[in-house]
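Table S2 (continued). Query chain:
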Amino acid sequence: MMGMILLEPADLSDANVIHKPRVSSYALVARDLTKGVADVGFILADIYDRFSVPLRTSLKILVRSQIHDVQHVFLIGPHLAEKREGLQNALLNLSCDALGRDILQGLHIPAWQAVKQEDMEFMIDLIDTLAEA
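Corresponding output:
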């Protein structure tokens, strides 16, 4: 959703972007773009920056976002509400052991951070505003 919103200034939307397969990794996004399988691709900037020079040269950046207020979050549903504190503690303490650090490294994040309710509401409002634009 965020990626398509970022493409609106270029007059690209779900209506006129035909080839947009969904794949499981950024390497596959890059592969599909270079082979002409996909018309557009969304890649985290820090991942793109680590691509090889020949690969980066073959890809053309249309837009690059720097939205620092939007974060990815780990959410639970109401049926797990009583386990919230235990799950939160487990995630917040992942960096305390080698296996947890490996998991975090695989997610390309240094650690999970606790989020206040008002911060979450701000992010939701920001996404809603972007979606309406």
